[in-house]
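Trying the structure run again after the queue cleared.
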Amino acid sequence: MFVKRTRSLLCVCIAASLSFTAPQMSLAQGNDLPDIGTVAGATLSIDQELLYGDAYMRMIRANQPVINDPVLSEYVDTLGHRLVAHADNVKTPFHFFLINDHAINAFAFFGGYVALHSGLFLDTQSESELASVMAHEISHVTQRHLARSMEAQAQRSPATLAALAGALLLAIAAPEAGIAAITATTAGSIQGQINYTRSNEREADRFGMQTLAKSGFDVMAMPRFFSRLAAEYRYSSKPPQMLLTHPLPEARITDTRERAQQYPQEHPTSSLHFFLARSRVIARYSGLDEKDALDWFTRTAKKSSAAMAPAFEYGKALVYLDNEKLTQAEEILTKLVKNDPNNNFYLDTMSDLYLAKNQAHDAELMLQQALKENPNNAVLEINYGNVLLKEDKFKDAIRVLQRYTHDNPNDPNGWSLLAEANSRAGNSEEDLAARAEILALKAQWNKAIQYYTQASQLTKLGSLEQARYDARIDQLILQRERFMALQNK
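Done. Tokens:
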């Protein structure tokens, strides 16, 4: 399922708190680091970090072009949690998401949130390289670097840790006010801040590489990607955002290369799913027109192994489909599905093709069979709900989408489809409730409460539905108060 999203202004400054500099260390120190990831616990608890993380994420949804693509979301989430399963000192759940931005960058913040710019797929050349970036950001979270950095700033200034965290939240909601607040509350020396962030990066490198190795990836991918990135932009007047927030001095690259050589060298087979995800980003999020995108897939396929050929064919099929050249798209997709019938990249796009050809029933049958093989899969379920909606099977669509939104409450796509299904079925109050949930995901509390209030007024007095709406209103009011309290500390 493909839902186009409008690009909005980038305004987050969190990544700057996790800059990527580190002096060279003696290898004699090895990988035995003390458990220093809980130093910030004296002033900022894990529960508080979760509150701030949730608040930041809502503001990011409102202010950044988050990619709500079911297939890409499944890929980065699967890859991220493979790494988390082998990370040390994990104290929070993790959430991985993509931002539609060509700049090469990634950042992490409170509550286990890790953001990847789509530009990373344009520059990483293997799954191990992408995983190396993710492992580094995961380590920032497990070692609680943002909390510890803010604690250090609070010790150098009159500001409380809560004031600094609230200033970051303000910076997302109102960039000028937030940056001014951070400036006003931070009195420490510039050198002190640089030294502290270098310490953070050293830890994130070492723990990240350890996680990468334990997860079965090629540890040499980290220095390889960093070296190529640094060389490519060495003389650039405008380096990518990642080199601004994550500088790569030669000593830093040398250290990671020497450290990687201490690990057993793994050479995992190339990941088709990585190249499928990369092709999807190129086709739908790179901004290339039809001719340039097709040319990119043709040129890149010639330089790649034959085993990855399906990924480049898949990219071409997406370009054809998005440009309404359905015959060409169908010819490619039919072969891909035949050879790999349970691949969600192919099934998602084949579903879109069937809908474009007004063959929704064929899509329904295909997805029903796929769900028998892979029950409750999020990609298949949201596509199934979408197909039922297109067939005007509103009751069935609502049933599927209610289950989907229950299991995936933070995906605005599910709420959007549920709102449409209820609207077309004449369920005005449920339409309002679903739209309220989309607003709440973006911290637009007042409007969300207004929609639920309207839904409550439309339903029968004293009914279970009205009680449910009123209970949700109470929850949203409490969430709004907590959110405002975070900003005002």
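The chain has 23 helices and four strands. Worth checking whether this holds up in the mutant runs.
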